[in-house]
């Protein structure tokens, strides 16, 4: 009997649905047992979000400060053949509950020595967060053997607008009567079950070396080529903002409110102005240096940590 543990945190249920789809072939196999662990922060995060709480979550997400988590239900000494880790992305970083888990003593104990496959279902910017997750997994002694990254296929600025409707007003579809549905498409969620079949094969053969290449060939790592450079630069800028805001106090501290508000204005303006510039620059770079851009993409499609 092969034992899989699925760990995740999701506010809207989207990541849960993606994981459920991936798990379908695995659950249907009598030789596989699947256990699930839902991550629970000691102090829950709100859903839907309001602007104040949303931007107050920014500094500690970016600085990857671990929050206190409720104890796990699973025994951290229990052995598993594979851990499938749902990775929620907040502000180009692992979400606070994910960081809380990955940096906790219990989490690190559980992950130590295990094969791990990460799964994210973000808007479209997950590269930096995945780099952080790779490092945290390495620090925990885990072996990252696969990564599935699904994104919202809408154009960048459309997905920015629709995610506001979804996360702030719980209006996933038809936001303001004009926008397409937010998030991962129903088709992509349903078809994610194909990755489960690929994972099952690797698990049965205990052969994980070629797993990521197969996931990539099945379209399991989605990224927007023209946003790669913008995302990498944005994380550096985010770190500076996060330090600037948190210098005034911790989560909820009224002393940091003014700085958080300035950032709340900066972010959408930055996105509106920088996205088209980054798009144009990226296209020029890809034309002038196709080899460099390809190498960069291949790195992010992989599971190694540079
Ligand atoms: C506070 C916050 C920050 C987010 N930041 C990002 C981001 O930087 N990049 C991205 O692609 N998606 C981002 N998202 C979208 C999430 O990754 C995810 O797609 C969404 O929250 C719904 O998924 P879930 O509730 O199943 O986790 C953010 C969501 C929240 C709540």
Low-pLDDT regions: none
Question: Percent helix among the residues?
Answer: 40-55%
Q: If strands are numbered along the chain, what order do they take across the biggest sheet? A: 2-1-3-6-7
What's the number of domains?
1
The whole-angstrom Rg is 19 Å
The CA-CA distance between the termini, in Å, is 35 Å
User: How does CATH name the architecture?
Assistant: 3-Layer(aba) Sandwich
Q: If you consult CATH, what is the topology?
A: Rossmann fold
**Structural class designation:** alpha/beta
- The CATH class is Alpha Beta
For CATH, the homologous superfamily is named as: Flavodoxin domain
Provide an overview of this structure.
Helix 1 packs across helix 9 (193-205) and helix 12 crosses helix 13 (290-301). The chain is of the alpha/beta class and 306 residues long. The protein has helices spanning 14-27, 51-56, 58-62, 96-102, 105-111, 127-139, 156-169, 186-191, 193-205, 211-217, 228-246, 257-288, 290-301; strands at 2-8, 32-38, 82-86, 89-90, 93-94, 115-122, 143-151. The two termini are 35 Å apart. The chain is built from 13 helices and 7 strands. The strands form 2 sheets. A 5-stranded parallel beta sheet has the order 2-1-3-6-7, with helices on both faces. It has a two-stranded antiparallel ribbon with strand order 4-5. The protein is globular and about 55 Å long. Flavin mononucleotide binds at residues 10-12, 14-15, 54, 57, 88-92, 121-126, 167. Flavin mononucleotide (FMN) is lined by residues 10-12, 14-15, 54, 57, 88-92, 121-126, 167.
């Amino acid at each position: 009997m092969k034992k899989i543990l699925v760990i995740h945190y999701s506010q809207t249920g989207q990541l849960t649905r993606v994981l459920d789809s991936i798990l379908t072939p695995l659950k249907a196999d009598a030789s596989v047992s699947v256990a699930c662990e839902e991550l629970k922060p000691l102090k829950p995060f709100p859903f839907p979000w309001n602007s104040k709480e949303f931007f107050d979550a920014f500094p500690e997400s970016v600085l990857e400060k671990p929050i206190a988590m409720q104890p796990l239900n699973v025994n951290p000494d229990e052995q598993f053949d594979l851990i499938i880790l749902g990775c929620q992305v907040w502000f180009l970083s692992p979400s606070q509950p994910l960081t809380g888990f990955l940096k906790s003593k219990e989490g690190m104990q559980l992950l130590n020595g295990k094969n791990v496959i990460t799964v994210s279902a973000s808007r479209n910017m997950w590269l930096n967060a995945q780099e952080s997750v790779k490092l945290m997994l390495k620090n925990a002694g885990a072996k990252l053997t696969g990564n599935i990254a699904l994104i919202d296929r809408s154009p960048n600025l459309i997905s920015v607008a629709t995610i506001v409707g979804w996360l702030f007003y719980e209006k996933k579809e038809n936001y303001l009567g004009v926008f397409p549905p937010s998030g991962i498409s129903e088709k992509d969620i349903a078809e994610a079950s194909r990755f489960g079949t690929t994972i099952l094969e690797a698990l049965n053969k205990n052969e994980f070396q070629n797993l990521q290449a197969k996931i990539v060939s099945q379209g399991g790592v989605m990224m927007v080529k023209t946003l790669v450079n913008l995302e990498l630069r944005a994380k550096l800028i985010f770190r500076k903002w996060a330090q600037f805001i948190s210098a005034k106090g911790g989560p909820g501290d009224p002393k940091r409110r003014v700085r958080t508000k300035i950032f709340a204005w900066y972010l959408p303006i930055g996105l509106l102005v920088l996205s088209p510039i980054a798009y144009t620059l990226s296209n020029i770079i890809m034309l002038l240096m196709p080899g460099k851009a390809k190498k960069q993409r291949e790195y992010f499609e992989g599971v190694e940590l540079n």
